[in-house]
Design brief:
The protein is α/β, with parallel strands linked by helices. It is about 40% helix and about 25% strand. It has 17 helices and 25 strands. Strand 13, helix 10 (about 270-280) and strand 14 (about 290-300) form a beta-alpha-beta unit.
């Protein structure tokens, strides 16, 4: 496994079934490349039908024993997992950087945020207890939370460790068993993380990895033994996964895409707003569903735009803190560049042109290989430009001047997506006006990436989410458990006194 860091060999990423790494029955593999250079760094298994059946059998065997343990017993494993992830976070950050392209601070931050969900899961003994009440004389009602069963967690490329850890810990603590399907673009980090779960004492079969592409996703959705499915990805696929599971009366939570609007009110703090907006749209190379994508300025805001432009131009390509990494692959690079080019052709003005990284017109040796697109700021004069309405999933900020707060809200409300929105202002009244009217599931006030922290859960609305509940926090506790209710009445007590 150390060969991935030395670069001397190509790592083979096999499935992780019943506590062991095993080859796929297809004996087929797919290349995994690093976005920094485009070089092949690993080969990941392409699973077949028998691999799925094996994973299901092991999961069924493990579920009976794992679910019968108390929640206090189950979370002891997670306490140790939390410690091990923290101890190995620099090693894990190297893997995230190499397979995804994040800079070091972003990689470490994603590990800490994922580990925060592990920490929350450790508190389930205090959160999962049911209720009991005497509802009438001699009759009591109580409820309890039972695990769902086998859970499939299908995760995206943009956060190789954080998003898996948004689902796995709470699901396991609640008594479920999990089959993880990582993105075939970034399978390396979690193949190391499951070793840490094993070291922490997690029994075989409780957490497994089934690698592959669309056929594996379809198989997990369709298999009758899989009782719940979580998915994070594009809206198109999220809706397909949701419908597929719904047709089978299966519990599903499928998170889709986003087009997040930031609104700059005239009274906003210019330095805070400009810094936050730039960090929001350029962080993780814009490959996150909470990234800023459209900035609506109420009225003429030349000073704000000057600051945004100046701070964007200071960003350099690289892998360390303060630098911006590449996008995931050539297809993503081409898509992003096309949106920029089409916007210019349609009459938009470029305040910062990130295509200079894509064609390396700045003559940086680092950009000769890999999938690079620089941070880009587009000033629009047409509210119907594609870059203002569609998800780009790259380091591109579209800016449009609007006349008033009602006009800004209109543009936010027309979006098909409902992930996040933010208002920058110094006025509590203005902030409240917007947060009461935004259509999104997550909102920020002077915060450009308003990701909730535990116990608050993560989830959007509209076409940014299909299915039940949310993916972290108390929403996940609802998703990964079934409330069962018991009503009890015993025969009337035998009335007797001491004289009887």
């Amino acid at each position: 496994k150390d060969t991935i860091r030395s670069g001397t060999m190509t790592q083979i990423i096999n499935n992780y079934l019943n506590g062991q790494f095993v080859k796929p029955e297809t004996n087929q593999y797919l290349d995994v490349t690093t976005p920094f250079t485009g070089e092949v760094i690993a080969k990941v298994a392409l699973s077949g039908k028998q691999d799925l059946e094996n994973a299901i059998k092991y999961a069924e065997d493990a579920f009976e024993k794992w679910s019968s343990q108390t929640v206090k017993t189950r979370v002891q494993v997670l306490f140790r997992v939390h410690q091990l992830i923290d101890q190995h976070k620099n090693e894990l950050a190297e893997l995230v950087m190499k397979e995804h392209g994040k800079n070091r601070i972003e990689a470490l931050g994603s590990i800490d945020k994922g580990n925060e969900t592990v920490e929350y899961a450790c508190s389930l003994p205090q959160l999962i207890q049911g209720h009991i009440l005497e509802v009438s004389r001699g009759v009591t009602c109580q409820d309890r939370r039972d695990p769902v069963g086998i859970v499939a967690s299908i995760v995206p490329f943009n956060f190789p460790i954080m998003v898996p850890l948004w689902t796995i810990p709470i699901a396991l603590a609640a008594g479920n068993v999990v089959i993880l399907k990582p993105s075939e673009k970034v399978p390396i980090t979690m193949s190391r993380v499951v070793e840490l779960f094993k070291e922490a004492g997690l029994p075989a079969g409780v957490l497994q990895i089934l690698n592959g592409t669309a056929p594996v996703v379809e198989g997990l959705c369709d298999h009758p033994s899989v009782r719940a499915v979580t998915f994070v990805g594009t809206t198109r696929v999220a809706e397909l996964v949701s419908k597929r599971c719904r047709n089978l009366n299966k519990r599903v939570l499928a998170l889709g895409g986003a087009k997040n609007h930031l609104i700059a009110y005239p009274d906003c703090n210019l330095d805070l707003t400009s810094s936050d907006v730039v960090a929001s749209f350029s962080g993780c190379a814009g490959q996150r569903c909470m990234a800023a994508s459209a900035l609506l300025t109420i009225g003429h805001s030349p000073e704000l735009l000057d600051q945004i432009r100046a701070k964007t131009e200071k960003i350099k390509p690289g892998s360390e803190a303060g630098f911006m990494g590449p996008v995931i692959d050539q297809a993503s690079k081409d898509k992003i560049v096309k949106y920029i080019t089409d916007a210019v052709a349609g009459g938009a003005k470029l305040l910062v042109d990130g295509r200079s990284w894509a064609d390396n017109s700045i003559n940086n040796p680092l950009l000769e290989k890999g999938f690079w697109v620089g941070p880009t700021v587009i000033l629009h004069d047409n509210e119907n430009d594609a870059a203002l309405k569609e998800e780009i999933f790259g380091p591109v900020l579209s800016v449009l001047q609007v006349k008033d707060k009602e006009d800004a809200l209109r543009l936010q409300l027309r979006s098909e997506y409902g992930n996040a929105a933010a208002i920058y202002t110094s006025s509590g009244a203005v902030a409240e006006w917007f947060t009461k009217r935004f259509s999104t599931g997550m909102m920020g006030v002077n915060v450009g990436v308003p990701v909730p922290r535990e116990p608050f859960s993560f989830g959007g609305t509209l076409t940014s989410k299909f299915g039940d509940h949310d993916i972290t926090g108390d929403g996940a506790l609802e998703f990964f458990t079934i409330r069962k209710k018991i009503t009890t009445k015993w025969g009337p007590p035998q009335e007797a006194s001491w004289l009887s």
